[in-house]
Amino acid sequence: MSPPLPAFLLLVSIAFTSASVAPLRPGFYAETCPEAEFIVKDVMRRNMIREPRSAASVMRFQFHDCFVNGCDASMLLDDTPNMLGEKLSLSNIDSLRSYEVIDEIKEELERVCPGMVSCADIIIMASRDAVVLSGGPDWEVKLGREDSLTASQEDADNIMP
């Protein structure tokens, strides 16, 4: 019998299975972007070499995204005239890092398979790979999340500790 997962891994694993309209499944990109998981892990590896704290930053980023209205990449949305996004919420302003890591992963994926991999799944895969590349356990994640078209600074302020 394997030892119980630390609390943060338990939260991460719960988040990996939430927030999508269609059923999530392993190998979601096997046909549309077979290199997706390799690309995410490779970019995470490079970022962790440049900045070792990026592993913890990506895991925290994923937690903040999933904790407010599900794992939908709403954290990445900028403010618009009709919407205050989550980037400037009280729990995120001047404290969340790793936007550039997710952007770099997305850019590489767009070069290989444009318009295929959601940012929500990128955040989930990057967080899993941060754990693995830090010497933690590996696990298969279910993918197929859709990116949100809205975000809510108010929800982030009210929900996040």
From TrEMBL:
Ca(2+) binds at residues 65, 68, 70, 72, 74, 86. Keywords: Calcium, Disulfide bond, Glycoprotein, Heme, Hydrogen peroxide, Iron, Metal-binding, Oxidoreductase, Peroxidase, Secreted, Signal. Gene3D superfamilies: 1.10.520.10. Its EC number is 1.11.1.7. The keyword Metal-binding applies. Binds 2 calcium ions per subunit. Pfam families: peroxidase. Its main location: secreted. One of its GO terms (molecular function) is metal ion binding. It is an enzyme of class 1 (oxidoreductase). Its cofactor is heme b; Ca(2+). It is found in: Secreted. Disulfide bonds join 33-113, 66-71. Residues 1-19 form the signal peptide. The record marks 60 as: Transition state stabilizer. Residues 23-161 form the Plant heme peroxidase family profile domain. The active site is at 64 (proton acceptor). It catalyses: 2 a phenolic donor + H2O2 = 2 a phenolic radical donor + 2 H2O. Substrate binds at residue 161. InterPro entries: Haem_peroxidase, Haem_peroxidase_sf, Peroxidase_pln. The keyword Signal applies. One of its GO terms (cellular component) is extracellular region. Belongs to the peroxidase family. Removal of H(2)O(2), oxidation of toxic reductants, biosynthesis and degradation of lignin, suberization, auxin catabolism, response to environmental stresses such as wounding, pathogen attack and oxidative stress. These functions might be dependent on each isozyme/isoform in each plant tissue. This is peroxidase. It comes from Salix viminalis.
